[in-house]
Protein 1
Amino acid sequence: MLKKNKKQNKPKVLVILGPTASGKTKLGVDLARKFKGEIISADSRQVFRGMDIGSGKDLEEYGKGKDKVKYHLIDISDPKKDFDLAKYQKLAFKAIENILKRKKLPIIVGGSGLYVQAIIDNYDLSSFGANRKKRDELEKLGAKELFKRLEKLKQDFAKKINNSDKNNARRLARYLEIVENGGIIDRRLDSHYEFLILGLDFPNEILRERVSYRLLKRLEEGMIAEVKNLKEAGLSNERLESFGLEYRYINRHLNGELSYNNMIKELEIASYRFAK
């Protein structure tokens, strides 16, 4: 799938989208080498340090030495700290400008739908301040209740939220806080860029095989040890649950709630559903 937005005579930005395990990073790196580009990660988990395997940073894909493709917005935050949509958008626009100044092509590689959307549609998030007390109160309601409330208040916006964010009480609390305070979370400003959007897609059978292969590969690479290290660093069960499927199911396994085999089985099923 190829889509071009109608922004003419503006700096070009390439966007690569696709389901999990679709090879977005590899394609982004290949195109960066061919067209003198640099990668901007649009994954809500890749911003955090110490979450390399479960978030699929695939840093080896970028190469080494002179052949290395420069990347942005990876390993820039402590996983114990909040990192929201407004902060990502600000840093992403800064990265785009930095890349363009050096006469390179910005290539956004998507993972989190809202992160990509905030760039392409230029959401106006500048006026939204954080109310920590209010957000803490909302988080206690749990992800399921928060999403239900958000869906009721702003259905169109709720439809854009991916499965990972639907289970992220912290992020949902932030969105709901904005909406309940009268903010228009998806208000758009005119974009400064022209976006070429490439979408990757696979038949279900192939996608299932790719998801299964990737899961086993990540387990072999030490994904369980990665989650264990995060727990030992002081991340709570709630925080790990909010980081998506891999961290959620492995954390449950480490807590004795799931056997190793059941963890793999349930994680594989959940990952495939998410990828679809």
Note: The CA atoms of residues 167 and 212 lie 22 Å apart.
Protein 2
Amino acid sequence: PSIVFGVFGLGFFIYFIGGGIDKLFFPESLPSPTFGTGGILWASLTLALLTVPVVVVATEEGLSSVPTSIREGAYALGATKFETLWKVVLPQATPGMLTGMILAMARAAGEVAPLMITGVVKLAPSLPLDSHFPFVHLERKFMHLGFHIYDVGFQSPNVEAAIPMVYTTTLVLLFTVLILNLTAILVRNKLRKWYSTTSI
């Protein structure tokens, strides 16, 4: 369950790693944590862990789909193991690996439970990007469309009045995931055509 990944992210990333970073590099700001609290960095790492099984399975299937005869032919022509892997196996397996990435991206986009534990907020006080050095602040809290749907749809004092906002946010989230998936599919198809023409 995704909530288990959220609890793991809270304990390992936020308390253990983030707390350790605070003790080493930001002792003057304690007891107010800098990295030892929820933020976009820890939430993204938690979602990455959540999607690892999908990516691993798709990668294994993509690599196993390459016929053994192709590898043996590359070896017979004098290619090393690295050259065979890099120039023969990976190009053939890339479309399958990208399919796994598409599925993982679609799953991660809709996950809310891990984010509720690792840093999502109703209203973020500031964006992760600004004009202050280092310009990208991954320790900051963030807003998420999925959490916004939950908050407006179930935590609003006037649920009936919030229904249009819930529908609008849901459509925005769906269109965002759809655009990301279509982009990944187009890239996969382009790579598949390119690899097929170069192999010929």
Note: The chain has a mean pLDDT of 87.
Protein 3
Amino acid sequence: MNKKIEPIHPGEILLEEFLIPMEISQYRLAQDISVPARRINEIVLGKRAITADTALRLSEYFGLSERFWLNLQIRYNLEVEKDRLKDRLKREIKKFEKVSYYSVTAEKK
């Protein structure tokens, strides 16, 4: 029985691993990093992606690298697209076949 684990949106990680344990409200975070509260709320709800701008602000605020936040978003995006396109990619893309130097030179003789 293979149960598919749904990709975790970075907003869920922001909420569950940072805001709740640190007792920081979405409003306070938004104020402290100078962004609209709606932006943080939409990220937490999984309706908005973490952009480079937001990643830089979160990294400065929490003392983590901006890549941490962007990598969360990129991994999420890749998993969502992989699930969405997996059958289609197998049908539409012909894999590159590596040709060795020796097979090419043998054909010329």
Note: Helices lie at 10-22, 26-32, 37-44, 52-62, 66-92, 101-108.
